[in-house]
Amino acid sequence: MLFSCVCIHTYILKIIPEMSCFYFKGKSKSKQKPESAPELEGQDRPRTSGKSERPSKSLGSLPSTPKSIPDLYKEKEHTLRVFSYEELREATNGFNRLLKIGEGGFGSVYKGTVRPVNGKGQPLVVAIKKLKSKSLQGHKEWMSEIQFLGAVNHPNLVNLLGYCSDETEHGLQLLLVYEYMAKRSLDDHLFSRGLPPIPWKTRLEIILGAAQGLAHLHEGMEIKVIFRDFKSSNVLLDNNFNAKLSDFGMVREGPVGDHTHVTTRIIGTFGYAAPEYVKTGHLTIHSDIWTFGIVLYEIITGRRAVERSRPVNEQKLLDWVKGFPVDSQRFTIIVDPKLRGQYSLTSVRKVARLAEMCLIKNHKERPTMGQIISVLKDAIADCNGASSSGSKSRGSSREVKQAVR
Questions:
Q1: Where can this protein be found (predicted)?
Q2: With bands split at pLDDT 50, 70 and 90, how would you rate the model's confidence at 252?
Q3: Is the dihedral of CA 170, 176, 179, 183 positive or negative?
Q4: Residue 378 lies in a domain
């Protein structure tokens, strides 16, 4: 059976009760499980909880209910292109392994070329994600990406061009088609030996773009959206090193009304999850701020959040950097040696202080993405005219604290 553009909406409505990546407004808060939702490994049961102690607003002052992600998708689903399986198989030369550019837990990503929508002009280079046919969790993430990226548009979020949902002799084939990001990911440029190191200022410009993408999720939509899987490998780069967030299979709608968090089964990448999320399953936009702080330390040090190949006391990035306080003379020891001293020490220290504020255990004291963006812009400005780590003074921690509070 071929899922056409006409019936994809019906298909989405059928599967929505089984989707756990979003909190749907108007649903009962009861813990009773819907009959249509099978028990799946890794399936989380979202609950909006934790009412704040602020007094309730009067009925007359309540704003209109914001639209949910599925609501926004229904309004814009016609903008996504529906591809056939044969079309995408041809685009990748039969999913040739030489065209494989990435691989994850739920499938592989291939570079391919497709015809323009009107059939005229040069073929369009795209990235095609092919999900494993028997991955139920991957099936849910496929739907989550369609709903989310089909509903939003921002220069720092990767552009979803279309999808495929075809029944073949080998089973249901689920694919997603994205714009092609020629410079791969921030992870590749920080940690791959096959690519030249990127300068400090470029790192800041990339992480600023990522921050602007997260700010749109947290503060720029009708509802707050929690990314939940922010990491350097999910920051993709175009030809000009402009950053775009990718991999939205685990996004969640944030708490609504007087609620302070949503409760969900813990998923994500080891070494990045916020401590309060790991301990309680309570998820807020502040959980993204914690992971952002870890990535800030990654661009400073050139080390991953967790590296098992290192000595035991250096395997966890956050534990290792604690031995080199920001204002100490030993701080420069943790700065990525691949930078070869070509950075503003004022700028690097400012970013390290910002990272520390993102990593405050009390999530309510962490900065917002808007405040983070302001500090990153200041750090970029500090780079102008700086040629080496020894050419700048320490800078003031007070100015950073003032900027993020």
A1: Cell membrane; Membrane
A2: confident
A3: negative
A4: yes
Distance of alpha carbon 151 from alpha carbon 79, whole angstroms: 9
Beta-sheet pairing, 243-245 with 235-237: antiparallel
Instruction: Determine how β-strand 252-253 pairs with β-strand 160-168.
Output: unpaired
Residue 307's pLDDT band (boundaries 50, 70, 90)?
Answer: very high
**Tokens standing for 392?**
């700048």
Q: Are residues 332 and 356 in the same domain?
A: yes
Q: Which residues are catalytic?
A: 229
CB of 144 closer than 8 Å to CB of 251 = yes
Contact 11, 174 (CB under 8 A): no
| One-letter amino acid of 224 | K
Question: Can you give the CATH number for the domain in which 332 is found?
Answer: 1.10.510.10
Whole-angstrom CA distances from 290 to 244, 299, 363 are: 19, 15, 8
Counted domains in the chain: 2
What's the CATH code of the domain at 103?
3.30.200.20
Do the annotations mark residue 130 as ligand-binding? yes
Q: Which of 121-135, 157-171, 334-348 has the lowest mean pLDDT?
A: 121-135
Residue 84: its pLDDT value, please?
96
Residue that is last in its domain, among 179, 197, 228: 179
What domain range includes position 110? 79-179
Alpha-carbon span 321 to 313, nearest angstrom: 10
Tokens in use for 203?
């790192």
* Whether 214 contacts 237, CB under 8 Å: no
H or E stretch at 143: helix 136-149
Rounded to whole angstroms, how far apart are CA atoms 104 and 92?
Answer: 18
For residue 118, which amino acid is it?
N
Region 23-28: what's the mean pLDDT?
34
